[in-house]
UniProtKB/TrEMBL annotation, chain A:
Record InterPro entries: ABC_transporter_permease, MetI-like, MetI-like_sf
Pfam families for this protein: BPD_transp_1
Family membership noted in the UniProt record: Belongs to the binding-protein-dependent transport system permease family.
Originating organism: Actinoplanes aureus
GO cellular component: plasma membrane
Transmembrane feature ranges: 17-38, 79-100, 112-132, 213-233, 265-285
Protein name: Sugar ABC transporter permease
Domain of life: Bacteria
Amino acid sequence: MATTTAPTGRRRDDTRLALLFILPALIGFVVFMVWPTVRGIYLSFTKFNLLTPPEFNGLDNYIRMVQDPVFWNSLRVTVYYVIVNIALQTILALVIAVMMQRLTRRTWLRGAVLTPYLVSNVVAAMVFLWILDYQLGIGNTLIAAIGLDRIAFLSSEAWVIPTIALINVWRHVGYTALLIFAGLQTIPETMYEAGRMDGASEPRMFRSITVPLLRPVLALVLIITVVGSFQVFDTVAVTTRGGPVDSSRVLQYYIYDVAFGRFQFGYASAMSVALLLVLVVITFIQYRVTRAETSDLN
Amino acid sequence: MALDTAPPATTVGPAPPARTVEPPEPRHFSFGRALAWTFMVIVIVLSLFPFYWMLRTALSSNNALYAGSDSLLPVQPSWGGFQRVFGLQTGQEAIDAGGAGQPINFWRYLFNSVVVSTLVTAGQVFFSAMAAYAFARLEWKHREKWFAFFLAGLMIPAIFTLLPNFVLIKQLGLVDTLLGIALPSMLMTPFAVFFLRQFFLGISKEVEEAALIDGASKVRVFFRLILPMSTAPIATLGILTYISTWNEYFWALMVSYTDKSRVLTVALGVFKSQTPQTGPDWAGLMAATLVAALPMLLLFMVFAKRIVNSIGFSGIK
């Protein structure tokens, strides 16, 4: 990354101009990223209701958090959501990417698969709220037509998390597939030719060539999607608002509720710090386990 | 303020090198290929069907949806849903047609979304390009250290800065304003800086040096040479930023309280919560959903190739 260019004499020190050029970005970075990060951590040690100045209260928020059953429940719900969401999405995206690679590389196909990603989570949530409606939704109409019992997708405790996970899979799977597809392009075609010469079948080549060579890309995709998945909020806010009971109260929704519903910004900040720590640890573990930095190609 | 699952990985490749010559596709028929195509067709249908269903429902009469829930075509076709969304029906008309009857005007939200997305895109791309140029081409002390500092920002999940940023926006008196929604992502994102720097590094130095020898200043080189030469990656970055800002919900939900600053995503949520007692106005809701989604779908139709090809890892790796 460090490209040190050899100084070649005249007018080579641009320090003043450079500072001028980075100034707007630097202000944006410090004011809206660095400072809020520091402040978020500070607020987690205070009692703060937004109207009066924050009062330092030591570890109170953290002690409360450890003893708060709703917090633990929301963490459990979030982890459950992430597992369902990531498992389905990654497997499906991998299959789609490989199919696209083997069938046709035309843009229209990738465009069609990517279309859901172009709309917001809110739009996705709205349309599936309608499609999965218990009485009138076309989804349940079809289920009833083939003789099964209608499913209360978003209003039963058992179905709500898998359903929200599926809605988000619908929106994101094309994007994930395209990332993996891009990774597939880096595998030399000669590998497959050699495989074919040796009489290897497509499934065999998938296992012995595609998967090992794709590992670094898959690792990156997993880190990105898992971190994103932990931050689920929009779909829950639009479809269930955490219900029924607390069965879809994901962590981020609980944090929002504590901050804007009860104006306990200190406690909400403490939970944000907890989420941040969870994300850092998960990223670190994934990075180590999947050895994202090394490739088997070479 | 991209909260989406992924943006940081999106890499907007400097125009993907000649994929025009495609490798010959095997044409022989086999059972496996037929199976694979069947699978892909199912994937495409599942991806696109919800869009058709929005349109079909939006063009139906809400009161008729109960009887015709299994009809694949609009039930008793009507513009009523769209009329309610744009406030063209009087309260009583709307209630009779199954709507909430509260005044709602999506033109306002459409306008707000356009303003916020335009502010964020223009500001973020321009200021990030300036910083990227300083990191790529200007000679100054500690350049690499500053750049590493910026890159560290990629590690901060957007979600963590939302609460403190809200507190800050409130202190600045910008709650419930369009500027308040736009400001935090208007000046830069680490990804935009990183991506553009990567591209600027690839521009040949010779052209630049020729201009400098002719007596042009570096400022002039940036505006007259570097920016015009980079229209492709700048356009790609701009389109992606526009789309992710348009689709942002969480941050906008925190900052906007009234119609004054309500953007489409937030308005949709509000519209949904005004459910009339007789049951949801699905025709109106789907019309509103379509109105919120359509501008991005049109943008996608125009720039499909650019957007599709922009997704990859070329700049990260």
